[in-house]
Amino acid sequence: MSISTEIITQSTLGGIPLLPLIRDTFYGVFGLLLILLFHGSAINYIMLRFERLTNGNLKFKQYNRVFFHFYASFFFIALIHISEIIIWSLYVMALGIMNDGIQTLLFVGSCYTTVGFVEDILPAGWKSLAFFISFSGLFSVAWTTSTMIGMTNSYKAAWNLKHHQKDPGAS
To answer: Which domain of life is it from (predicted)?
Structure first.
């Protein structure tokens, strides 16, 4: 092995082997972008559909339909998050990092939700991939929260109108 190749393969950054760190970062950022693109597309579709349907329902004083669309949207948002855990699991298995689908699903779900109920079972050299799974979960939940707050305003307006309050925005 030449000296330059040996220097590259033996290089560390603060004691962390450099090549596995670069590889983890590349695959982690790719997975993060994949999840955020999926999440953004899906949640925006649900949000825009909710707004379109509820605007029509409010126009025709169909308040119970607003409530139904609100809860149905929450259900579909939950399915989006479950899908993202499955996508991460398939991605980790496609990289050949883990072979057991159930263990992979539990580990990814633990990282994505940041609950941490499963120990770190990633093989040596792939440990930092868990950070990217966690980041995608944190960003997705934050995005979902902001979307749900906007949807709650429509729900509240429908509730107030149904119960004959003069100001739909009143508490």
So the answer is: Bacteria
Q: Tell me: the pLDDT tens digits for 75-101?
A: 999 999 999 999 999 999 999 999 999
Kindly provide the b/e burial profile for residues 82-95, where b requires at least 16 CB atoms within 10 angstroms of the residue's own CB.
Answer: eebbebbbebbbee
N- to C-terminal Cα distance for the chain? 73
Number of folded domains that form the chain: 1
Q: Model pTM?
A: 0.89
Q: Which two tokens stand for residue 11?
A: 């290089």
Helices (H), 12-62: 18-59
Question: What is the arithmetic mean of pLDDT over 139-155?
Answer: 96
Q: Is position 155 within any domain?
A: yes
Q: Considering the domain boundaries, does residue 13 fall inside one?
A: no
Average pLDDT, the chain: 92
CA 51 to chain centroid, in Å, comes to: 22
Averaged pLDDT for residues 137-146: 98
- CB atoms closer than 10 angstroms to residue 141: 14
Residue 60: CB atoms within 10 A of its CB come to 8
